[in-house]
């Protein structure tokens, strides 16, 4: 890039006859590099200086360079001033063909300019270019993009009307007049705006796509985002950026006067704050769905009439949708609603009413993810009412007897419960009904999780189920949340046992983590918060708490002899058969010890790996006569020490295994056992 650019700059100051070689291949190479890589600010600045000042390059080379001025980053205001300053008539000005190409370039890069104020300050200069026919089309387009209410003045309206009559109602001028009429409809009257008008679409959509690709790639290389969000203190303009079919009306304020303030005039946060009480409401308030500035205005200045007007528009669309007469795609309106709720973090009742009507004609497939994302913002309310009116109809449409659809519903309820938890955490006082709503939601999802475990008993399902119960566990373990939700049910025992005996050690560890959080919550509720949980919950919880400890630590797996133990709900006849089978294998260990840390299918590899690392460390320092063959038991460790093996106590070995699991991102086992087993709790 630098070599080609340097060659072109040197050739531009020499007449063609004085150059040693033809410069056109180098110009083509530079244009190709600019197309492939884009231009950094320094290179772009040099090329702008080249094309805006007198030089000896031919017209074709200049246009070729201008056509490939792809900025890799945002364009500075200084470059805008350089380009605008070279426009017009004069001996030192570029040719009109070059000026037209530069004006077109300004139109195409207008949205990536750092500061739009440079355009606004140059408005009079650009307006004076309308007299030049060769520049008029692109000048009108650029003016339409940057026009604000303060630019619409009587002398400019008069000049446009006069010029339009002299040019035979030029479509570009007519289009600019229509932009002016949006600001002062009572002034711009007559036949001037009734003729054919330019649509002001983007001059070259392929050029724009290539620019986006270049800037996106450059932003990724710099680990930053190239796409900027909508300006929160400037109205969103869609029509002038080439959108053909408007989904939501734009912000337009008619019947404005010289003393009134409209949203179209607001461009900074200071202007918004100073004129907050004076701003006129736009024509169609449904524009609130897509315009951040209008959202802020109605948030700070709520009006019942404004809400009613927006509701009427959405009701009208709902009726058209149900009747099958709507030209707007459902996915488009859902995407707009999603953007609104994400921006405002609120789901108005009118949206719920719309979704309730929509589900009657919805196929359950189109925009499914959008529907669920919108509903995750459902405010905390009576869950049974929400279930009957919204959630169950949506479930019937989505659930198709496949695990994928069930997992989508589960993911939705997980996100919904997470938002409700955040709402409770941010509330200063106790929320009425929060406890009942949370309990009913958990009870409803319990059945869904049990169905999922039966239809799709795999690692992905276990992960999604445990994601949900991490949220329910936080309800039971957070002291502040316990003041809102005091009756959260524990997970079903069959669900806990099924996932604990799964094939994944990570799943088993996460199950232990959930149970540990519940135990801490119950202790907190009964001691600090002085909240009494029902005996049914305590008895059910203590059963699988004791069974898990029996398996992992006490070597009494599947036993129901201890208080609260249920033997993991395994039938006693099956336990007897398994015990007899294990005894016939003559492995020296009973059935109850085969689910401990040493023998467990989940953790035995970690246990023996720890022992091997300990033996290697001792062997490097002192030497060992014998190594343990595994699995490790209390008796085998004692025998090993007497024969010259590693000297390690049974308790230290088991604590070491727990620490080893923690180091491998499976801290749930250690967490549960350390708050349940007395000796571990004291050492911790």
Secondary-structure map:
Elements: H1 2-12, H2 24-37, H3 41-52, H4 59-67, H5 77-85, H6 96-109, H7 117-121, H8 123-127, H9 133-146, H10 154-166, H11 171-183, H12 205-221, H13 269-274, H14 292-300, H15 304-323, H16 330-344, H17 349-358, H18 368-375, H19 383-398, H20 403-426, H21 434-455, H22 459-477, H23 493-500, H24 505-527, H25 535-552, H26 572-585, H27 604-621, H28 634-642, H29 650-663, H30 668-676, H31 678-683
Short description:
Its main location: nucleus. It comes from Xylaria grammica. This protein has 684 residues and is mainly alpha-helical.
Features:
684 residues; mainly alpha; 31 helices; centromere; nucleus; Mis6 domain protein; chromosome
User: What is the number of beta strands?
Assistant: 0
- Computed structural class: mainly alpha
What would you call the shape?
A: elongated
The radius of gyration is: 36 Å
Head-to-tail CA distance between termini: 64 Å
Given as residue ranges, the uncertain stretches (5+ residues, pLDDT < 50) are 223-230, 238-246
Biggest β-sheet description: none
Residue share in helices?
A: 55-70%
Residue share in β-strands: under 5%
Mean pLDDT: 84
| SS summary, helix count | 31
């Amino acid at each position: 890039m630098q070599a080609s650019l340097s060659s072109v700059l040197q050739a531009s100051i020499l007449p063609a006859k004085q150059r040693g070689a033809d410069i056109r291949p180098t110009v083509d190479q530079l244009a190709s590099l600019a197309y492939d890589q884009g231009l950094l600010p320094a290179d772009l600045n040099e090329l702008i200086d080249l094309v805006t000042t007198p030089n000896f390059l031919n017209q074709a080379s200049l246009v070729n360079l201008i056509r490939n001025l792809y900025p890799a980053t945002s364009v500075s205001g200084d470059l805008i001033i350089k380009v605008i300053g070279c426009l017009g008539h004069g001996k030192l000005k570029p040719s009109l063909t070059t000026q037209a190409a530069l004006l077109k370039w300004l139109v195409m890069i207008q949205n990536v300019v750092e500061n739009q104020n440079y355009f606004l300050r140059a408005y009079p200069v650009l307006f004076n270019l309308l007299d030049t026919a060769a520049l008029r089309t692109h000048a009108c387009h650029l003016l339409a993009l940057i026009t604000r209410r303060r630019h619409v003045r009587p002398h400019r309206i008069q000049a446009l009307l006069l010029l339009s009559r002299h040019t035979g109602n030029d479509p570009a001028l007519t289009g600019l007049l229509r932009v002016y009429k949006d600001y002062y409809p009572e002034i711009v009257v007559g036949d001037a705006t009734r003729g054919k008008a330019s649509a002001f679409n983007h001059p070259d959509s392929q050029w724009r796509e290539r620019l986006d690709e270049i800037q996106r790639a450059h932003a990724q290389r710099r680990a930053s985002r190239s796409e900027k969000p909508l300006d929160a203190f400037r109205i969103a303009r869609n029509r002038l950026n080439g959108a053909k079919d408007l989904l939501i009306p734009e912000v337009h304020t008619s019947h404005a006067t010289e003393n009134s303030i409209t949203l179209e005039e607001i461009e900074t946060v200071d202007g918004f704050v100073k004129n907050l009480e004076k701003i006129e409401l736009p024509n169609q308030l449904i524009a609130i769905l897509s315009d951040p500035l209008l959202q802020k205005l109605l948030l700070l200045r709520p009006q019942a009439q404004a809400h009613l007007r927006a509701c009427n528009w959405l009701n009208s669309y709902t009726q058209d949708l149900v009747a099958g007469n709507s030209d707007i795609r459902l996915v488009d309106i859902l995407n707009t609603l999603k953007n609104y709720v994400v921006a405002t973090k609120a789901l108005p009742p009118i949206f719920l009413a719309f979704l309730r009507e929509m589900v009657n004609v919805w196929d359950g497939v189109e925009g499914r993810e959008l529907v669920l994302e919108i509903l995750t913002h459902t405010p905390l309310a009576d869950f049974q009412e929400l279930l009957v009116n919204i959630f169950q109809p949506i479930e019937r449409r989505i659930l198709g007897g496949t695990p994928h659809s069930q997992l989508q519903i589960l993911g939705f309820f997980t996100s919904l419960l997470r938002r409700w938890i955040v709402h409770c955490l941010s509330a200063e006082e106790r929320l009425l009904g929060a406890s009942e709503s949370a309990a009913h939601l958990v009870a409803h999802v319990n059945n869904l999780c049990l169905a999922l475990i039966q239809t799709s008993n795999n690692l992905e399902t276990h992960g999604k189920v445990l994601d949900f119960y991490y949220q329910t566990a936080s309800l039971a373990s957070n002291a502040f949340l316990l003041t809102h939700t005091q009756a959260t049910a524990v997970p079903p025992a069959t669900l806990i046992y099924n996932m604990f005996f799964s094939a994944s050690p990570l799943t088993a560890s996460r199950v232990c983590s959930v149970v540990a959080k519940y135990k801490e919550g119950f202790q907190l509720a009964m001691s600090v918060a002085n909240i009494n949980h029902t005996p049914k919950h305590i008895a059910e919880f203590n059963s699988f708490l004791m069974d898990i400890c029996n398996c992992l630590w006490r070597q009494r797996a599947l036993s129901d002899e201890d208080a609260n133990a249920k033997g993991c709900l395994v039938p006693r006849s099956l336990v007897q058969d398994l015990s007899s089978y294990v005894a016939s294998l003559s492995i020296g260990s009973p059935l109850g010890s085969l689910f401990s840390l040493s023998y467990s299918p989940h953790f035995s590899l970690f246990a023996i790996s720890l022992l091997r690392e300990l033996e290697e460390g001792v062997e490097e320092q002192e030497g060992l006569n014998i190594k343990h063959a595994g699995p490790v038991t209390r008796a085998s460790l004692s025998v090993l020490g007497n024969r010259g093996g590693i000297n390690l106590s049974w308790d230290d070995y088991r604590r070491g295994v727990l620490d080893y699991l923690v180091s491998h991102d499976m801290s749930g086992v250690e967490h549960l056992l350390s708050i349940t087993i007395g000796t571990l709790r004291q050492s911790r």
